[in-house]
TrEMBL record, chain A:
InterPro entries: AAA+_ATPase, ABC_transporter-like_ATP-bd, ABC_transporter-like_CS, P-loop_NTPase, Siderophore_ABC-ATPase. It is found in: Cell membrane. It is a peripheral membrane protein. The keyword Transport applies. GO terms for molecular function: ATP binding. CDD domains: ABC_Iron-Siderophores_B12_Hemin. Residues 2-236 form the ABC transporter domain. This is ABC transporter ATP-binding protein YclP. Keywords: ATP-binding, Cell membrane, Ion transport, Iron, Iron transport, Membrane, Nucleotide-binding, Transport.
UniProtKB/TrEMBL annotation, chain B:
Its main location: membrane. Keywords: Cell membrane, Membrane, Transmembrane, Transmembrane helix, Transport. It holds the Pfam family FecCD. It is found in: Cell membrane. It comes from the Bacteria. CDD domains: TM_ABC_iron-siderophores_like. The gene is yclO. It is a multi-pass membrane protein. Gene3D superfamilies: ABC transporter involved in vitamin B12 uptake, BtuC. This is ABC transporter permease protein YclO. PANTHER family: FERRIC ENTEROBACTIN TRANSPORT SYSTEM PERMEASE PROTEIN, PETROBACTIN IMPORT SYSTEM PERMEASE PROTEIN YCLO. The chain crosses the membrane at residues 6-26, 38-58, 70-89, 101-122, 128-153, 174-192, 222-250, 262-282, 288-309. Belongs to the binding-protein-dependent transport system permease family. FecCD subfamily.
TrEMBL record, chain C:
It comes from Paenibacillus cisolokensis. Belongs to the binding-protein-dependent transport system permease family. FecCD subfamily. Keywords: Cell membrane, Membrane, Transmembrane, Transmembrane helix, Transport. Its main location: membrane. This is ABC transporter permease protein YclN.
Length: 252, 314, 317
C-alpha cells in the first residue's frame, strides 16, 4: 500500500500540493484527475521521489520512502513521466534492458535478459526490438517505455499522462495493457489522466484534486458523477451509461 | 567493427605514435634524449587521459554533448592566479619559478573555488545548467581582472604571462608529474565507484532516479571528480579548453554506443593520440612555431562548430 | 522608476563626468575658462561624455532587440558570440591590411559580427532543448570557440597583445578625432525605434509573424544587422563592455514589463546612466589613475547578472 500523509510541496512559497493525505490500495488502478495546476503530477513525482516534498511523509509498504535505499525503492516503484526525451541513440531492446538496472547494476544476467524478452513480448515489440527510438512512432515509443517499466518488475507502477500525444487506437491499446498488468500480473498502477472517460473506463479508484488539495476520492462510479465533477472542474458534465461504463459528455 | 576491435586498434595506434615520438631521430645521445622524451610523453598521456575522462563524465551528467568542464571558470581562474602572482610578486618569485609551489597553489585555489561554487549552488537547487552559467560568469569576472592586470604588467613580464596562457609540455617537472599521476589515479579510482551509474545517467535525471541511482549524491561526487581532474591537468601544463570537447565527440561518433566502458576508454585513447600526434607534428613539422594547445583549440572549435551546424544532437 | 528621475540622474551624472579628471575644472570656471581648460573640455571631456552616452544607449538597445528576437532574456552580444566574432573580424582586417583604416576595420568587423550572430541564430534553430539558461550557455561556448580561432591566428602572427586591447573596454582613450565613428550608432538607433514593434512580433516566431503579415526574414535580418553594426562600432572605439546589453534591458523589464516600444527610451536612458556611473566610479576609485570601464562593468555586471539569474529561478520554479 502507498500511504501519503499530510504532504506539502511549495514552489516559491506557494503550495502546489497542500497537506494531501491519501491511501492507494494494492492490485488496483488508481487515477488522479483534476484541472490544470491541481498538483496531480507533482504528487506523483513526490511519491516516486523525483521531486522532494517540503512536509509530510510517504509510506510504501509501511516504510517511509526516505528510508529506502535508492535501488531498493527502484525495485518497488517505477515511474514514467509524460515527456521522455532521451539524448542518446538507443534501440528498444537497449532501453528495455535499462529496466533491469536496479537488479543487475548494469551487468545483466541470463535471468535479467529473460525479463527483458518477456517485457518486449508483452508489449508486442518483438518485430521492432532492434529499431532505434528516434525511428518509432509516438505509440511505439510509449510502448517501449512501458516495456522498460515492465522489465523493472516493480509492485507499483506510476505513470504521468501515459496517453499524452497518442491517437485513439494507441491510447486504448496502452490502457488495456495497463489493465492486464493489474489483472494478470498483480501490479498496482497509479496514473495521472486528463480525460475523465479513460479514467472512468479503466480505473478502480479515482482521486480528484484541485488547487493542491483532494476534493473527492472514491470508487470510480462515485466520482464520475455530475455534482462531484462540477465541484472539481467547475462545469456541468452530464453522465450517461454506455456499454456499462459511465461516460461524461463534456463537449457541449 | 566490434567496439573491442576499435579499442584495440586505437590502443595500437596510440602505442605506435608514442614509440615514434620517443625514438624518431633520437640520435646517439640516448641517455640525454630518452628520459626527457619519456617525461614529456608521460605528461601528455596523463593530461590527455584526465581531460578526456573528465569531459566524458561531465557530458554524461549534463546530458549534453556540447559542454566542456573547462567552462565552469577553472581556465580563467588559472589565468588569473598566474597573472596575479606575476603582477604582485614579479616573474622571479619562487611562486613562478618553482613549479611545485606553483602547482600546489594553483590546484589548491582551483579546488577551493570549485568547492565553494558547488556548495553554494547545491544548496540553491539542482539545475545543473544554472551552475554552469554561474561558473561561466565567474570566468568572465576572473577574465576581466586578468586582462586588466595584463595591461598594467611590464611588457617583459607579460611574455611570461603569455607563456602561461597556452598549454605546454616542454618543461614539466618530474616531481610534480609523479604527484599528478598519483592524484589522478586516486581520483579516477574513486570515480569508478560511480562508473556503473554512468550508462543510466545518460538517460536523464528522471529515468536515473526511477531506476535507482542515488542521483544527487552521485552527480555531486562526479562533479567534484571532474573539477579535480581538470584542476590537475590545467595546473600541470596549462589550459586546453576544447580538447575534451573534441575527443568526447569523436569517441561518440566512432563508437555509437551508450556504454561508458567503451566510451571512456575510447575517448582517453583518442585524446592521447590527438596530443601525442599533435605534439609530434608541432615539434617536427612546425618546429615549435606555434603551440599545441592553440592548434587543438582551433581544430576542436572548428570541428565542434561543424557538429553543431550539421545536425543538432544536443 | 519614472522617466524624469532617470533623465535627472543622467543630467547630474553627465555634469559630474565633465568636471572629474586629473586637470581641475570646476563648474564655476565655466564663465572664465582659460584656453587650456577649453581645450581639455573639447578634446577630452565632452567627447568622453558623448561616447559614454552613445555606447551605453546603443549597447543596451541592441541587447533588448536580441532578447526580443530570440525570446530569451539572457541573450546579448556578449552571450551570443557577436562580440567574439567582431574581434575575429578586427584581427582578420589587421592581418590582411597591415595598416587598415578604422573604417575598413569596422567594415570587416561588421561582416564577421553579422556572420557570427547569424550562425548563432542557426544553432538556436537546431537546438531542440530550449531551456532559458541553456541557450546563453550555448552562446558563451560558441563565443569561446570563436575566440579560440582568433587566438590561433593572433598567436601565429604575434598579435596577441593587440587583441587583448580590444578585450577591455576603455573610455580613457576617447579623444577628439578618435571616437567619431560612434556617431554611426545614432541613425541605427533611429531604425531600431522605427522597427521596435516588428521585432516584438518577430520574436513570437516565424509562423506567428507570417500570420500577422510580417516579413519575418527581413525583420530578423534588420535586427541582426543593427546588432552587428553597433557591436563592431563600439568594439573598435571603446572595446568590449561585457554584459551591458544583458543587464540593462532585464532591469527595465523587471519594473516595466515587456513591451519593446515603451521600454526603448527607458532602456536607452538607464544604459547611459549606468555606463556614466560606472565610468565615474572607475575614475575616482584609484584617482589619479583609472580603472577601465570593461573591468568596472564586468565586475558590477556579473554581480547583477547573477542576481537576475537567481531571481528568474525563484520565479520559474
Amino acid at each position: 500500500m502507498i500511504e501519503v500523509r499530510d504532504v506539502t510541496k511549495l514552489y516559491g512559497g506557494k503550495p502546489v500540493v497542500d497537506s494531501v493525505s491519501v491511501a492507494i490500495a494494492r492490485n488496483q488502478i488508481t487515477s488522479f484527475i483534476g484541472p490544470n495546476g491541481a498538483g496531480k503530477s507533482t504528487l506523483l513525482s513526490m511519491i516516486s521521489r523525483l521531486a522532494d516534498k517540503d512536509r509530510g511523509e510517504i509510506f510504501i509498504n509501511d516504510r517511509e520512502i526516505g528510508r529506502y535505499k535508492s535501488n531498493e525503492l527502484a525495485r518497488t516503484v517505477s515511474i514514467l513521466k509524460q515527456t521522455n526525451h532521451i539524448n542518446i541513440r538507443l534501440t528498444i531492446r537497449d532501453l528495455v534492458s535499462f529496466g533491469r538496472f536496479p537488479y543487475s547494476q548494469g551487468r545483466l544476467t541470463k535471468e535479467d535478459w529473460r525479463y527483458v524478452d518477456e517485457a518486449i513480448r508483452y508489449m508486442e515489440l518483438e518485430d521492432i526490438e532492434n529499431k532505434y527510438l528516434d525511428q518509432l512512432s509516438g505509440g511505439q515509443r510509449q510502448r517501449a517505455f512501458i516495456a522498460m517499466v515492465l522489465a523493472q518488475d516493480t509492485e507499483y507502477v506510476l505513470l504521468d499522462e501515459p496517453l499524452n500525444n497518442l491517437d485513439m487506437k494507441h491510447s486504448v491499446q496502452i490502457m488495456k495493457v495497463l489493465r492486464r498488468m493489474v489483472d494478470e500480473l498483480g501490479k498496482t498502477v497509479v496514473f495521472v489522466l486528463h480525460d475523465i472517460n479513460f479514467a472512468s473506463c479503466y480505473s478502480d479508484y479515482i482521486v480528484a484534486l484541485k488547487g493542491g488539495k483532494i476534493v473527492r476520492e472514491g470508487p470510480t462510479a462515485d466520482i464520475i458523477d455530475t455534482p462531484v465533477l462540477r465541484e472539481v472542474y467547475d462545469m456541468e458534465i452530464p453522465i450517461e451509461t454506455i456499454g456499462g461504463n459511465r461516460i461524461g459528455i463534456y463537449f457541449s | 567493427m566490434h567496439p573491442k576491435g576499435k579499442i584495440a586498434a586505437l590502443a595500437a595506434f596510440a602505442l605506435l605514435l608514442i614509440a615514434a615520438f620517443v625514438f624518431y631521430k633520437s640520435g646517439t645521445n640516448w641517455d640525454y634524449v630518452l628520459p626527457r622524451r619519456l617525461v614529456k610523453i608521460a605528461a601528455i598521456a596523463l593530461t590527455g587521459a584526465a581531460i578526456a575522462f573528465a569531459t566524458m563524465v561531465f557530458q554524461t551528467i549534463t546530458n549534453n554533448r556540447i559542454l566542456t568542464p573547462s567552462i565552469i571558470g577553472l581556465d580563467s581562474l588559472y589565468m588569473l592566479i598566474q597573472t596575479f602572482i606575476i603582477f604582485v610578486f614579479g616573474s622571479m618569485s619562487p611562486m613562478v619559478i618553482n613549479k611545485s609551489v606553483n602547482f600546489f597553489i594553483t590546484v589548491g585555489l582551483m579546488m577551493i573555488f570549485a568547492a565553494l561554487l558547488y556548495k553554494v549552488l547545491f544548496k540553491e537547487g539542482r539545475n545543473l545548467f544554472f551552475l554552469l552559467l554561474v561558473g561561466i560568469i565567474f570566468g568572465t569576472f576572473f577574465g576581466s581582472i586578468s586582462t586588466f592586470l595584463q595591461v598594467l604588467i611590464d611588457p617583459n613580464e607579460f611574455l611570461i604571462v603569455q607563456d602561461r596562457m597556452f598549454a605546454s609540455f616542454n618543461n614539466v617537472n618530474t616531481d610534480i608529474l609523479a604527484l599528478a599521476f598519483a592524484l589522478t589515479a586516486l581520483t579516477v579510482l574513486y570515480a569508478m565507484r560511480y562508473a556503473k551509474y554512468l550508462d543510466v545517467l545518460s538517460l536523464g535525471r528522471d529515468h536515473a532516479i526511477g531506476l535507482g541511482v542515488p542521483y544527487d549524491r552521485t552527480v555531486r561526487q562526479l562533479l567534484i571528480v571532474v573539477a579535480v581532474l581538470i584542476a590537475i591537468s590545467t595546473a600541470l601544463v596549462g589550459p586546453i579548453t576544447f580538447l575534451g570537447l573534441l575527443v568526447a565527440n569523436v569517441a561518440h561518433e566512432l563508437f555509437r554506443t551508450y556504454r561508458h566502458s567503451y566510451l571512456l576508454t575510447g575517448s582517453v585513447l583518442i585524446s592521447v593520440i590527438a596530443l601525442v600526434g599533435g605534439q609530434f607534428v608541432v615539434e617536427r613539422v612546425f618546429t615549435f612555431s606555434t603551440t599545441l594547445s592553440v592548434i587543438i583549440n582551433f581544430i576542436g572549435g572548428v570541428y565542434f562548430l561543424y557538429l553543431l551546424l550539421r545536425e543538432s544532437k544536443a | 522608476m519614472k522617466k524624469r528621475y532617470l533623465t535627472a540622474a543622467l543630467i547630474v551624472l553627465s555634469v559630474c563626468s565633465v568636471f572629474i579628471g586629473v586637470k581641475d575644472i570646476s563648474p564655476l570656471d565655466l564663465f572664465s575658462l582659460t584656453e587650456q581648460q577649453i581645450q581639455i573640455l573639447l578634446v577630452s571631456r565632452l567627447p568622453r561624455l558623448v561616447s559614454l552616452i552613445i555606447a551605453g544607449t546603443s549597447m543596451s538597445i541592441i541587447g533588448l532587440i536580441m532578447q526580443q528576437l530570440t525570446r530569451n532574456k539572457f541573450v546579448s552580444p556578449t552571450t551570443a558570440g557577436t562580440m567574439d566574432s567582431a574581434r575575429l573580424g578586427v584581427l582578420v582586417a589587421l592581418m590582411l591590411f597591415t595598416s587598415a583604416a578604422p573604417l575598413l576595420k569596422m567594415a570587416v568587423a561588421f561582416v564577421f559580427a553579422l556572420a557570427g550572430t547569424i550562425v548563432f541564430m542557426k544553432i538556436l534553430d537546431k537546438i531542440k532543448f530550449k531551456d532559458a539558461i541553456f541557450i546563453p550557455l550555448v552562446g558563451l561556448m560558441f563565443g569561446n570557440i570563436i575566440s579560440s580561432i582568433t587566438t590561433f591566428f593572433a598567436y601565429k602572427n604575434n598579435l596577441i597583445q593587440n587583441i587583448s586591447s580590444w578585450l577591455q573596454g576603455d573610455f580613457s582613450i576617447v579623444m577628439k578625432g578618435r571616437y567619431e565613428m560612434l556617431y554611426l550608432s545614432i541613425p541605427l538607433m533611429v531604425i531600431a525605434y522605427l522597427y521596435a514593434n516588428r521585432f516584438t512580433v518577430a520574436g513570437m516566431g516565424e509562423d506567428f509573424s507570417k500570420n500577422l503579415g510580417l516579413n519575418y526574414r527581413q525583420v530578423v535580418n534588420i535586427g541582426l544587422i543593427l546588432v552587428a553594426a553597433v557591436s563592431s562600432v563600439v568594439l573598435l572605439t571603446i572595446g568590449t563592455i561585457p554584459f551591458l546589453g544583458l543587464i540593462i534591458p532585464n532591469i527595465v523589464s523587471i519594473y516595466r514589463g515587456d513591451n519593446l516600444k515603451n521600454n526603448l527610451s527607458h532602456t536607452a536612458l538607464l544604459g547611459a546612466v549606468f555606463v556614466i556611473a560606472c565610468d565615474i566610479l572607475g575614475r575616482v576609485i584609484i584617482y589619479p589613475y583609472e580603472i577601465p570601464i570593461g573591468l568596472t562593468v564586468g565586475v558590477i555586471g556579473s554581480g547583477i547578472f547573477l542576481y537576475l539569474l537567481m531571481r528568474s529561478r525563484a520565479y520559474a520554479s
